[in-house]
From TrEMBL:
Name under which the protein is recorded: Dihydrofolate synthase/folylpolyglutamate synthase
Record family assignment: Belongs to the folylpolyglutamate synthase family.
EC main group: ligase
SUPFAM superfamilies per record: MurD-like peptide ligases, catalytic domain (SSF53623), MurD-like peptide ligases, peptide-binding domain (SSF53244)
Residue ranges annotated for the Mur ligase C-terminal domain, each copy included: 269-390
EC number: 6.3.2.12, 6.3.2.17
Domain Mur ligase central residues, every copy: 23-241
InterPro entries reported for this sequence: Folylpolyglutamate_synth, Mur-like_cat_sf, Mur_ligase_C, Mur_ligase_C_dom_sf, Mur_ligase_cen
Amino acid sequence: MERVRDALLALGHPERDYPALHVAGTNGKGSTCAFVARALEAAGHRVGLYTSPHLVRVNERIRVAGEDIPDDVFGQRILEVLERYPSALTDPMTYFEFGTVVALWHFSRERVDVAVLETGLGGRLDATSAASPVVTCVTPVSFDHMEYLGHTLRDIAWEKAGIFKPSVPVVLSRQEPEAMDALLRRAGQLGVPVVVEGRDFHLEAGADGGLAYRGPVWSLGGLTLSLRGPYQRQNAAVALACLEALQARGVAVTPEAAREGLASARWPGRLEEVAAHPPVVVDGAHNPAGVAVLLEALDALYAGRPLHLVFGVVADKDRGPMMRALFPRATSVHLTPLDTPRSLAPERYMDEARAACSRVVAHASLAEALAGARVDADGSPGGWVLCTGSLFLVGAVKRLLA
C-alpha cells in the first residue's frame, strides 16, 4: 500500500482528479459496478471503470466510456508511470498494485468525470484504498480468501470496512448479522453515514410485473434488469442506492439514467450463454456463497433440464461445500485442470466428486472436458452445459469458444 501511495504522489495524485465510487465485498461487486457505471454513462458522464480479475485480456480491467484500454495506450500509460516513478523498477509493486496505479493515472489522463473502482481483495490493505472516493459500498460478505482476511465473518467484514473514509457515506447490502455488526461498528468509529439495504432501500417485484425500488429519495417502478439471475436484484438495489448517494455528493444522475443503466448493463462471465446447441453457460461462482446464489438462478432459469457440469477449481478455495451443493444437481460432472499454477488437479478430488454425483469424468484439458460435457448434453433432451468453479475457468472457456 505504501508503494502505491508513493507512486501516486510521484504522479501528482491523479486519484484526486475525479470523484469515485469504491466497492468492496465478497460477491456481487462486479455486477454492482457494471450497473452503476452504465447508469452514469447514460447520465452523460465519461466513466472510468476498474475491475478485476479479467476473463480473457488484461485490458478488460481498465475501461473508459465502456471501452477496454487499447493496447497502445496501455503501453504508453505503463511507460508514463515508470518514467515518473522509476522506483517501481527497483522496488517492484505487486501485479495488482501496479495495475491500480496505471488505472488511476489513465483515468486522470482521460479526464473522466467519475470513476467506479472495485477492490481486488479485502479492503484495508487493497491497492484501490489509496483512491479518494465520495461514496463507498460493501456488497455481501462471505467466506473467501480466508488465509488473508481471517476465518470469521466478523474479521473478513472488518477488512472490507477498510475502504471506509471519515464522513464519506457507505451503502451496505444485506449481510449476515456477524458481518453487519462489524461493518456498522467501524462506520460508527469513523463517523460514516450509512445506508442499509432493507432498512433504507429495497427492490422487489412490482404489481406491473417489473421491479420496484424504494430508496432514500427515489421511487422507481417498472424496472428491468439486463443481467440474469434472481441474485441480480440485490446487486441492482445496491447500485441504485449508490447512484442516489453519488447524486447527493454532486455526481449528477437522474432516475431515468438509472433505469437505463439497469436495463442495458453488461457483465461477462455471470450466467452468460456463450454457445448454443447445446447451450453452454459460464458463471464465475467460486466460493460457497456464490454457488448458493447460482443454484437459485438455475432453479429459476433451467428447472427440470439435465445439467452437465464442467468444473475446475484452484487449490486454495473451499471446494467441499461448492461440490456438495452443485454436483448432486448434475447428470454428469466433467473435471478439468485450470491454466494457473494454483489449479487443483482433478485426480486430487475425484473421490469427493464421485460421492456427490454418479457420473464423474476427469479430463486432462479443458477442451476435452468441454467436449465430453457437450456430447453428454446432446444425448439428453433439453440438456445443457454449465462451466463454473473459477473465474480462470470462465475466461478459458470464452477464449476456447471464441
